[in-house]
Amino acid sequence: MASLRFFVCFFLLCASSLTLVYSRSPPKNHVALFILGDSLFDPGNNNYINTIARANYWPYGETFFKYPTGRFSDGRIIPDFIAEYANLPLIPPYLQPGNHQFIYGVNFASDGAGALAESNQGLVIDLKTQLSNFKNVTKLLGKKLGDAQAKTLFSKAVYLINIGGNDYMSPFTTNSSVLQSLSKEEYAGMVIGNLTDTIKEIYKKGGRKFGLLNLGPLGCAPIMKVFVPGNTGSCFEEATELAKVHNAALSKALQELKIKLEGFKYAKHDFNISSSERLNNPEKYGFKEAEIACCGSGPYRGIFSCGGKRGVTDYELCADPSEYLFFDASHISDKANKQIAELMWRGTPNITGPYNLEALFEA
Description:
Structural class: alpha/beta
Number of strands: 8
Largest sheet: 6 strands, mixed
Protein name: GDSL esterase/lipase 1
GO molecular function: hydrolase activity, acting on ester bonds
Signal peptide: 1-23
Strand content: 5-15%
Keywords: Signal
Pfam families: Lipase_GDSL
């Protein structure tokens, strides 16, 4: 018994020593994961700001974590699966209290955030502020690891970004008049301009490998279908058309960055294709319901009332979220997040290209 206790203590001592060493000097082939974006990627940053845009209450988190974490899902979100595939721990929210080492990476995403500061202003951490937070992390890691090791870490890291959906949805959900004064192309140009400026700033700090999603058919989310007169089941085409303009501009911008920025590599997942396939053929992907959200109220459960904490207290909750493409009015379920993450990780060029994320982590 004494020898067993000695072995356990010795093992724990060695493990703690390795942790201390690792916190000062990452392994040679270590690849960190830094994440910026909106609710599709937010692991709970909004828990720590003054906003109603939170998911830190039941039933969020019910199927995997068994408690609410701040993720807008019944379980995990896309970055959680990507971290798992890359043999990394769950990447924590930047604002989560604690002594973060940041060597695995950190997540800056915020529910409701847009590339434009005006999108849900005052309720979210916009893209510009997320970039500022990333720059703070570069300074902290520079001091902790030394400039040379920090530079290596940032050059090998993968930067996962998803932004734009809220920029195109908020004009409809907040009665903004911005789209009346600009063409679709002009508005998308502003969104893409802020996104590419962010990529360029990360590139200046050493970033070379980027993973991005284009936008899905925004008008087919339950929250947007509510805007269709008569609740006919049709998608709200005006929002979907904006997403198409955005997607074309994003593809062009990424191709230009690849030409202008030496060593720039990217994996762009066609979220429009993968979402549309599941909306049109849910049974093929293991879903029984793609029109109605699992949690919410009103037509298609498209009123954002899941959990009863956002003004509307009454809501409906399905028995099995894995049967639903959408968990709430605008966010997909744990099961759907896993499917998209798998496509981003190993997807073929027609769905995720020119690289997939697995290739980026190995590059």
